[in-house]
Amino acid sequence: MAAPTPSFDRPVRQLMTLLPRMALTTDAMPDFETSDPAVLVQIADACELLQRVVSQGISTVGQLLAHASVEVETGELSQGDIEALGWLLAELGDSAAACMELAAPCRRAAADFTGARDVKAQ
Description:
The protein is an all-alpha fold. Helix content is 62%, strand content 0%.
């Protein structure tokens, strides 16, 4: 499976710069309806790319672990290393799911957004 071609180089960094630009409700939850639609589209794009990168990375690590079973049996890979990889994969999987949970409402709120700014006739 080919690696995704990112529209920007670092989706995590892109998200970190975009998330503070999202409007919040009074209880500090994302306010999708009052957030800038252009920002929402960029957040959704970054989330979807990050989800693909993480999913493909998890798959690749799983394949490597399957091929490394001999090293586990002989003790070349410690039980602690395998446990750490397990926790990492669990966190990455949760992060990928969180990305999709954020991307979906961003897409819904920006569904009518075309990228063009409204210009009032004079």
